[in-house]
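Dear colleague,

Following up on Tuesday's group meeting, I ran the structure prediction for the two-component complex that the binding team flagged. I've pasted the input sequences exactly as they went in, so you can double-check that nothing got truncated or mislabelled along the way. The structure tokens for the whole assembly follow below. Feel free to forward this to whoever is handling the docking comparison.

Inputs:
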Amino acid sequence: MDLIMETAQQEVLSEQKTNPGIEMKGSAALLEGLLAEGVDTIFGYPGGAIMPIYDALYDYMDKIKHILVRHEQGGIHAGQGYARSSGKVGVVFATSGPGATNLVTGLADAQIDSTPLVCITGQVFAHLLGTDAFQEIDIINITSPITKWNYQITDATEIPEILAKAFYIARSGRPGPVLIDITKNAQLQKFNFEGYKPCAHIRSYRPKPIVRKEYITEAAALINSAKKPFVLWGQGVLLGRAEEEFKAFIEKTGIPSAWTILGAGAIPSDHPLNVGMLGMHGNYGPNVLTNECDVLIAIGMRFDDRVTGRLDKYAKQAKVIHLDIDPAEIDKNVQSTVPVWGDCKETLPLLMDACEAKQHPEWIEKFRSFEREEHAEVIDNELFPTTEELTMAEVIQVLNELTKGEAIIVSDVGQHQMIACRYGKFNNTRSNITSGGLGTMGFALPAAIGAKFGALDRTVVAVIGDGGIQMNIQELGTIMQCGIDVKIIVLNNQFLGMVRQWQELFQEKRYSFVDITSPDYIKVAEAYGIPGSSVSKREDLRTALQTMLDTNGSYFLEVMVMKENNVFPMVPQGCSVSEIRLK
Amino acid sequence: MSDQNQKEISIVKQEYNITVYTENQIGLLGRIAIIFTRRKINIESLNTSPSEIESIHRFNIVITETEDVVRKVTRQIEKQVEVLKVYYNTNEDIIWQEMALYKVPTDIIAEKALVERLLRENGARAVVIRKDYTVFETTGHRSETDALIIALQPFGLIEFVRSARISIIKDSDGFNRKLREFERIEPGQDVIENEFLNSRDKVFSM
């Protein structure tokens, strides 16, 4: 039994000169802790059970920015956007009861997409727990399956230590959301605050597995002997801040590499070894050649079913090397030949050192040949359509040209999301922010607000469908109030497009409740004080996008696009990746 | 063993004993339980109690599943922040016992049964003997505790209870030493329980 972990050196850290402490309320101690963690932005919504914290926040207004959202779901998605664009922990406040339950979708989204969050919820007085008190809900049990960790505080003295643990757990290892539920009495209770000590170790928690050298050696041997090696990378590269290490690894080994949608941007879209996107609506070559490669190297990705298609026909010919920080991901969906446990920031350089410098021009040419075919069959039709109607892809293409691929694109869920990921140009890491695992409609608008706060010097463009924009449209109010600069593009095809596409392809065009109407978005935006315009003609598109980008502050651009267009290529559900369809 | 054979074995469902060492934390039982319920796996037996170290709890969980599923589930359990270590073992890898208590009317037992023989045959002992009822206790495998139910049923069995399974892993050299060493280096923390629920009337709140 290897229970004994590295003895912590942080004991020394905490042995600072004995602090006599100062008396303060739990709520003030919480804010002191947030300051000590370097928190600069909080997304939240007040309410009865979190009032003492908001009262304390009144005294910290000049030190911490608080963004008043319009709905707690908007708050948590904004926190996610902030975390994804900045790489820091997103912080969200909500009250008890409905405030807390409104966080649930965002927590689930952050859990499945490994987004570091610390959510603070108010809770009724401790003596009322379990009495069905006003706005009491058992948020700890509700959120257990969708948080990395959660904890209920009933005594103020716990606050500094638990908060420190929360931040440590949220950001370390495979990141994830943490929820801290604080009863009102604990927020009000005065205690002797002896200062905030960051947490760097929990005895039962091992954020990253120990790297085993023998697996590095085995993996390198496989890579060195491979004729057709193929790298799949995911968000782990971004989360591990290992973009440089990743780039160096593939450049040395010369291996063609494809990305999952959350991995996009780790290397630039036009990098010569970047062969495109994986999965159901990914590129043609990467999907087909998954079933032809001899060594498959998966880096920081989890073989989601939208990536693998039918598992029993997935890369069966290949030896699989799987690099992941989370041991539970190894062999979960795809059996690995060599499991490389560990943080890819550490394992990639080790692996690179053990690998020979190589090039695989013929093998890469295969990807390029599939790419040409995809261009001829799909991409060219999307970018240069012969119809009068605009396509989603040409909107993204013009956006790429105008932003030169420097923007952060935040997409919602559905057809426009797949188009934004497929056609978006990403020069930089942390540039493609989207709800990957959970597929949460309504994610993009609030996430874009958060993303902008997390990266104030970058252009943030939210690309949203006409369905998704109506799911959290109230966050236009947040934009209005805090004056943040978010460019909103609604790609309006007057349908819930992705469901419609499936109904067309697999249910004989039985269009069941996918025909969705929209309000006059420009009027809605105007009511919120946001300028906007609507375009439907090709000749107006570029000017409209340019106006949007040139506008000082937020802008709402509606683009009317082809009503019944489909996203291709497509791996139909239940099919193998090599059965991908071009039409 | 060929690959083919290995595959066949891994798809056979059998009883697995999952041993989990955890911190003593409120809510952890729920976190562990939902890992099974999410996958629609029935927990057949669950015992949780302090280990030889007060702050470390030991769970014994029994499920019937394939090894592949059990391995994945144990990794998910081990991923929980407050879980120290997880093992899984087949019944061949462990020594296990369940305890059972049987309450029967004393008069009938005294009159009709050869109590001594019954006790001897089933490895049972009397825990309490009162005028109105007698409580027997036995420990053993399920089949053994079941056998005594059958034996006592004709004599007016009043109440029966069986404990969860506890098990010792055959190949567990040094467990106790390592656990103590671990606790010595980094002592566990006390659980903070709600101390306000009993003083509800004395608290004014709104």
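Chain B touches chain A through 39 residues (CB under 8 Å).

Cheers,
M.
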